[in-house]
Fold these 2 entries.
Entry 1:
Amino acid sequence: MNGRLRQQQVYLDGVFGRTPRVSTDLTRLEADAERVMRPEAFAYIAGGAGTGATMRANRAAFDRHRIVPRMLRDASRRDPSVDLFGRRLPAPFLLAPIGVAEMAHPDADLATARAAAAEGVPMVFSNQASVPMERVAAELGESPRWFQLYWSTSNDLVESLVSRAEACGCEAIVVTLDTTLLGWRTRDLDIGFLPFLRGMGIAQYTSDPVFQRLVTEAGAAPRTPVDAPAPRPTPSALSVLMSLRRRKISRDEVQRFVEIYSRPSLTWDDLPFLRERTKLPILLKGICHPDDARRAIDSGADGLIVSNHGGRQVDGAVATLDALPGVVAAVGDRVPVLMDSGVRSGADVFKALALGARAVLLGRPYIYALALAGERGVRQVLRDLGADFDLTLGLAGYAAAPDVGPEALTG
């Protein structure tokens, strides 16, 4: 990902009147995407928990830290690549798992996978994907992929999802710990919109044989009588039924998903179950406290992702960049530490590496680019972020990504 070559190509295209399909400033993509996305879809993707304080804190933390460029260091040959779990990545970032991508573009996860494969960037499959993981894996070819796991109330389903992830070439399991309950997401609540109730974002479940068995078992079990009369059908309710019919999803499948998708009772004692059922590296996502980081390593985690779910879960939570140094110090060199939430530029990637992250996960910007220009939009964002990081690396006086340390920052 050579920044100079990317920069030159953009300027040469400009000579012929061709400009980038999406903005090269990733902070502009949210406003641009709002103009083309359906209001409820944009609200779901862009919204955070409560007042949005955590989302603002994520960005403020990046702004507080300042890069201190060093001069007269040979940066003519730069190496932005990093090693991660036996893979040499072209740049220190991956595509974060984002659910319900169909709300941004009809090609959803397939378009994202094609872009990731073309640019050599690892993709983390969402547990709440719009397309089953096997179809997405086929688009990726030999390109690396991981799988995000939401720990269901059914251990049989957990085992099935992990087995499928292994079978379709996933190289790590990312257990998302911070969403055992849905946060108080006011944008969605104000319009009464949850995509899963409309059959969106549950393709990993409806394509799973264990889930289908659970649906059948629930249908055979006696239901508790309800004294309240059934609500009268409304145009909105009929629209939801039509949405389910288009996706060939039954109301029983949606009901079963709602009942089992997350486990609020999950504890450290549950982790051995997963460790015994996969040889893949296990990363725990959502770690923000040093004590949790130490406990995670003691429990056999192979890596950590410092994350507050992009500000979508706890309003007023610590910014991930602020939490990162404490987690890194607690872990030392025992396992790699990654981070997400708020990354919007090559400078942000640089700052995260300086504070100890091995790599970052990019979230909302690529979904906004997907809404704006499909696969080509995602590809451009990946090229632009890689170019921005490469140039920032060189201009700050560094020749290789692993060389960046805390001395590169002030603040």
Entry 2:
Amino acid sequence: MDKKDSAIIGKLKEDSRLSVREIARGTGLRPSTVHQRIQKLRHERVIERFTVKLDNNKADEGFIVFMFVKTKPSVNLGTGILENPHVKEVFGITGEHDLLMKLKFKDVVEFNDYLLKFRKGEKVETTHTMVVTATIKEEM
């Protein structure tokens, strides 16, 4: 990636619906250059997908939780955890816990139902949960 690619990506981060011409105007590049570079970035999987940023409260996802998870030794949680619509991000981490998860729910009741089912499984040893009280900055 060079400065031109970074400029294109910067514009797409601001608004992924911008046309090639609008990105070209905003970056000072020719539209054909922008188009070719976007295709290259997609082909190289630098750009994985184009998506949308929702208002958490309006999308009924205003109850945000970060959860540290310690699994039992030699356990793989599998893909089921990743397919759950409440699970937004999962990171493998070092230290006392194995995973850090970002989850979003409508309310505390919906979260509690999820947590009870999640902890019931034989793969989870412990969880440590933190509830978000204010969203200061959140990016896609």
